[in-house]
Amino acid sequence: MTNFRGLSFMLISFAIAATAQTPVKPPVTRKLDVTDTYFGTKVPDPYRWLEDDNSLDTKAWVKAQNEVTEKYLSGIPERTRIQNRMTKLWNYERYSAPSKYGDLYFYTHNTGLQNQSVLYVTDKLSDKGRVLLDPNTLSANGTVALSGMSVSDDGKYLAYSLSNAGSDWVVWKVRNVATGEDLKDEIQWSKFSMAAWKKDASGFYYSRYDAPKGDDALTGVNKFQKVYFHRVGDPQEADQLVFDRKDQPDWGFGAHVSEDGRWLLIYQTEGTERKNRIFVKDLDKPDGEFQPLFNDFDASYDFLGNDGDIFYIMTDQSAPRRRVIAVNINQPAPSAWRVIIPQADGRDVIASASLFGDKIAVTWKIDVLNQVKLYDLDKGKIIRQIRFGGVGTLTGFGGKRNDSEAYFSFTSYNEPPTIYRYDITTGKETVFRKPKVDMNPGDFEVKQDFYNSKDGKRVPIFLAYKKGTKLDGTNPTLLYGYGGFNSSVMPGFSAANLVWMEMGGVYAVACIRGGDEYGKEWWEKGKRELKQNCFDDFIAASEWLIEKKYTATAKLAIHGASNGGLLVGACLTQRPELFGATIPAVGVLDMLRYHKFTIGWAWQSDYMCSDDKEGFDNLIKYSPLHKIVTGTKYPATLVTTGDHDDRVVPAHSHKFTATLQTAQGGPAPILTRIETDAGHGAGKPMSKVIAERADMWAFLVKTLGMKLPEKF
């Protein structure tokens, strides 16, 4: 797609924008003579020294880069207005759906601008109850966040994990719910883990790694995960090793206890493969051994619940868009499985499922939009269905087998999440919590459309903007995407994105391959050797937006985070002339060395690996760091990351920034914004979220030549 009806306009607009750019002189980044040889190919890596996040040189570089960026952003008059409006819009009460344990309900609440949401407990939902845990009291700047929580079945204990400065490392603690006081329990060096309580509340199962050595906590490779049992009141040194595999360093483990308390399930994963094994132990037999239930590593298997020896499983085995089956664990062969809900015809995908009494609630994705159907658990007969008009996302329906109620939410780009109570017996739904936000949903247009990618594949795209927007090719447009790791992008509310629309911007989201929008096959067509499909889909979305006169090159920005940062980096380096601005956030940008840090090795199932020739030959074709060409006119770029990101280490962003700044052959600024005391994104304080988004929008106001509405 290279011939557009608006091509002449695009070229004129690009020329105007190019002359309006303000050149920025970045700090000089020293180069070292570092070269790696991959299968006979020499690859320079002159900024390797930036991989050491603890070095004084790297810290000085970060400081110098932030000073240049701050000077640039502080010179944008609209910056303050944007931040003020964003602060006002974000200042609304937010609740999570309640969960019941014993006779108590647990939920989180944020008054609006609290850095972290507060955990409450109550014995009746008509009463707000009392504060059980307020993370805002744990640090002066809100950088200690509640990462995970699990309540014992009787509601007596809360196991909760805390993350500091956005790190994936967490510390587990135990709180007495009745008194609100912490016990002496403290568990270190846990990561990618929840807590699974035993039925008698004597303790819980969790996963952890060995303690890192030296200063490698934020960069060292994480392997050999293990499952332990922690008994309440004991020191961590006394925890019992429950499950590990010394012969399998790449296997990850997660524990789950069945609702009846009888079965301990160990999920085994490997990297980002959409496959797992399940090992099962009968806790009624203390001396019993773990038995493999699904041991072929051929598909995904999600345990939904059980009736004695009958396990209910959601799987994509022989069903890439998933189905629900019943398995007698004494006869686990596929030939003995009973199909309750078969895979749907067409492109419909089972997104999730949960059990309530003798019913099973299934959330379907139908062209990426959700609807929920309740089925009879025995024969899989549809009892009723829940659907909402308009473009949005339904989530929820978690609970226990004996619950008489369930909670779910509906949200869209112009609709903050409204929580509904659903009566499982009568099928009646009522509004439980509806947020009050300083906006009118009716002022905005939200719709879904479709476009064709380079190879003709039909791809969904969501669009949101102010009503009355003219499609004349002049609208500032922000295109977002992810496209990886079997993760879908669904319509949802963001105060920051609403501000963008209020500023006159079009917000677009492309549901490209690599995600789970259409099930396993959609994911597999966007990974490993086929990763280029993701980039082609995103580039095609950009061209479609221009062709349909939503925007023009000079007014088009692209944004993505993590794997989405890779997406932006790849599209930026492959088609630099197509965009007016780019914002790659916490991106995977050095595809030859990503696997050498923290959990990066686990992404090989999506990316391949440069340690073997086939992997290197594929990765070098699109690795953003290595596709930068000196003298190229790159669009205005703001690279964002966090200094405590131990998921995608900041070295990716640092090396990419330094290389792009040195190579820039045009006038557009190449800047980086490095947040201190922040990680990959989870648990980031509200104050930092607002400041970062305001800076991003201010950057786009200047680089895209936007003029804010007078009443904004």
Ordered list of secondary-structure elements with their pairings:
Elements: H1 7-20, E1 35-38, E2 41-44, H2 56-74, H3 78-90, E3 94-95, E4 99-101, E5 104-110, E6 118-122, E7 130-133, E8 144-151, E9 157-164, E10 170-176, E11 181-190, E12 196-197, E13 203-208, E14 226-231, E15 240-243, E16 251-257, E17 263-270, E18 277-282, E19 291-294, E20 301-307, E21 310-315, E22 323-328, E23 338-341, E24 349-356, E25 359-366, E26 369-376, E27 382-386, E28 393-396, E29 405-412, E30 415-423, E31 429-433, E32 444-452, E33 458-466, E34 477-480, H4 495-502, E35 506-510, H5 520-524, H6 532-547, E36 556-561, H7 563-574, E37 581-585, H8 604-607, H9 613-619, E38 636-642, H10 651-663, E39 670-675, H11 686-703
Parallel strand pairs: 34-35, 34-36, 36-37, 37-38, 38-39
Antiparallel strand pairs: 1-2, 3-5, 4-5, 5-6, 6-7, 8-9, 9-10, 10-11, 12-13, 13-14, 14-15, 16-17, 17-18, 18-19, 20-21, 21-22, 22-23, 24-25, 25-26, 26-27, 28-29, 29-30, 30-31, 32-33, 33-35
